[in-house]
Design brief:
The protein is built from 3 helices and 4 strands. The protein has 94 residues and is an alpha+beta fold. It is globular and about 30 Å long.
């Protein structure tokens, strides 16, 4: 019984480590449809990114990573900066 419980705890711990991240980047900058398409195309080309949602009305870019992958803040800042945006804040959730 102890062995089975130990295995279960280890497996659950490993599953948590392989979870996908959701990253919310609050931005400032131009807010046009072409900018939105450019950001989406740029982030979807990244190997870590599963999907990206852009809400320019609320100045929010939400990046969903692939399972077991992450994208670091410096890369997010660079990609958004190259697209003409200033990153105000980056928040993460699992």
């Amino acid at each position: 019984m102890r062995y089975a419980l130990s295995v279960l705890v280890i497996v659950l711990g490993l599953c948590g480590g392989a979870a996908a991240d959701t990253v919310h980047a609050t931005v400032r900058g131009s807010a046009c449809v072409l900018c939105e398409v450019g950001i989406e195309k740029t982030f979807r080309a990244q190997p870590e990114v599963s999907t990206v949602d852009i809400d320019l009305d609320n100045n929010l870019v939400t990046i969903h990573t692939k399972r077991g992958r992450t994208i670091d803040d410096a890369k997010i800042r660079k990609l958004l900066s190259d697209a003409g945006y200033t990153v105000v804040r980056i928040a993460r959730e699992k």
